[in-house]
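General statements about sequence and structure are easier to judge against a single worked case. For one protein, we set the task of working out the structure tokens from the amino acid sequence alone. This step matters because it turns folding into a mapping between discrete strings. The amino acid sequence and the backbone structure tokens for this protein are reproduced below.
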Amino acid sequence: MRKYLVFSAASIALASMISVAAQARLDRSCRQEIVSMCGMNRDAIRACIKEKRDQLSDNCTTQLRENIRERAGRNQAKEDTISDVAANGELISYGADPLQKLRFYRAAKADAPLIIFIHGGGWKRGDMDNATGSDKVSHYLSEGFAFATINYRLVPQSTVEDQAADIAAATAALQDRMQKLGSGPRHIFLMGHSAGAHLAALTATDLSYFRKAGVNPAALRGVILLDGAAYDVPTQLVTGNRIMQSTYKQAFGSDAQRQKSLSPTYHAATPNAAAFMILHIDRKDAKQQSDKLAENLLKNGTSVAVRAISGKGMTGHREINHNLGKADYPATTIVDSWLAEQLR
């Protein structure tokens, strides 16, 4: 009777031990064999089996081998899932509208700074996946950042004000997601191209959008603007590229006060995000708008750097977005150095 009770206790102990063979499904005779040989000390059983495996019966050896193979398969499936998320990102909804989605790429370490990319498209088109370029995600992950690219509601079904609110709501959702993973970001960087540069600059200067979404503006460590040209909307509607005039009018309307309220240049008085990196190509209105925004930000004590990147026309405008992250593209080094400086 006593022997039976000993083996019953051993069976309970072995059944609960993942370390033996991934919740091993061993028959009773094999469990008894292991206890007879190795005892009931949970910490010692694994080492004992490894040392004395040649003394186990063929039946028990086969069972252990099959269980170990099964465990390896489960672990591989888990690793494949993690790799898939790393390669393709995690799709997250931050609102009820189908366009209120983002793709989040997790960093390797906890508390990594987060870069949030905002696509362009004239406020009326564009997508989070086809606007990031081929190297941004892999480059910034390799640099130790978490990375996200977001969709937002589009004009004319929604307004530019809605889009700015979406940027803030997406940021709040990302903070929540990272906190659930145990790694809430201490520093957030907004990065936007074209219309996305305008939205990044707007939400980083008119901080009411972030406050309404429950995001502490102090978390906004910096903003990277890629060839935007609508930082001063009223001026752009008068002097900007004629081809773009209908796009600007559709997005910003005819009310002068609304146009100013959606112009980052008119919100340059502090508080703002801590620092701005403004890049533009050889494009007249982009240079003028970038310089004016920088001038107003500097006048109010915000840290700003402006850099001209080679490239002309719409080809250069597309290239600054598509090529950022490539090792041989000059803007990549410029942005990397600036980011490192902000995180010192």
Remarks:
- Confidence is low (pLDDT under 50) at residues 1-24, 77-86.
